[in-house]
């Protein structure tokens, strides 16, 4: 674990990691998530902007590349440590105070449903300082408010370096709204995720 990662994780207890991405996000996630060991002790929940009019194969695609169990989140499904969850298309994904998922079809946020802000804000309210939020490449401001809520609740916030992102709009929006704990390129985010195993 590098000095940067040690400083970010020192004294922290993390129960869940929420990740938001849009344009260019699949490539970034494929570079980050496969590093996670099968017995990674946290829940990892991902919102990737998807078209509403087609089924998602993200869970299937990522399960072929990850040691951890991967599934599509469903309404009332309880979160389990050591699993990766993807938001389904056409629904906002929230985390309730009892650490279960809820789905809704409320209006899009930043033209997106699922919206990163919806997941991150609800996760911050549920997990507080025991949450880590990671925002990757994308072409909207979705995720900026969610990352700010995570920070306000004491959680860890990491934004992809805009110079490293395929589309810098989303990382820049988050950085401008509230400075994150770290701004890192994808290789360093991957190392940070692997280092989280050491603080369990």
UniProtKB/TrEMBL annotation:
Domain of life, source organism: Bacteria
CDD domains: CheB (cd16433)
Family matches, as InterPro entries: CheB_C, Sig_transdc_resp-reg_Me-estase
Domain CheB-type methylesterase: 10-200
The keyword Zinc-finger appears for this protein: no
Residues annotated as the enzyme's active site: 22, 49, 142
EC code(s) of this entry: 3.1.1.61
Record keywords: Chemotaxis, Hydrolase
Catalytic activity line of the entry: [protein]-L-glutamate 5-O-methyl ester + H2O = L-glutamyl-[protein] + methanol + H(+)
Family annotation (PANTHER family): PROTEIN-GLUTAMATE METHYLESTERASE/PROTEIN-GLUTAMINE GLUTAMINASE (PTHR42872), PROTEIN-GLUTAMATE METHYLESTERASE_PROTEIN-GLUTAMINE GLUTAMINASE (PTHR42872:SF6)
Annotated protein name in UniProt: protein-glutamate methylesterase
Phylogenetic placement of the source organism: Bacteria, Pseudomonadati, Pseudomonadota, Betaproteobacteria, Burkholderiales
């Amino acid at each position: 674990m590098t000095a940067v990662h040690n400083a970010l994780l020192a004294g922290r207890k993390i129960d869940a990691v929420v990740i938001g991405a849009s344009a260019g996000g699949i490539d970034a996630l494929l570079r980050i998530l496969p590093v996670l060991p099968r017995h990674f002790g946290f829940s990892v929940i991902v919102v990737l902007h998807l078209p509403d009019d087609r089924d998602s194969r993200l869970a299937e695609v990522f399960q072929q590349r990850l040691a951890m169990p991967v599934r599509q989140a469903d309404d009332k499904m309880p979160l389990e440590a050591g699993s990766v969850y993807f938001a389904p298309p056409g629904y906002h994904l929230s985390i309730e105070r009892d650490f279960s998922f809820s789905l809704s079809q409320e209006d899009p946020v930043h033209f997106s449903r699922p919206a990163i802000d919806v997941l991150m804000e609800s996760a911050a309210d549920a997990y507080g300082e025991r949450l880590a939020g990671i925002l990757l490449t994308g072409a909207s401001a979705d995720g900026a408010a969610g990352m700010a809520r995570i920070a306000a609740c004491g959680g860890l916030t990491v934004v992809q370096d805009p110079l490293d992102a395929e589309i810098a709009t989303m990382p820049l929006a988050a950085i401008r709204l509230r400075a994150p704990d770290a701004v890192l390129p994808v290789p360093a985010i991957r190392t940070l995720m692997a280092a989280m195993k050491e603080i369990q």
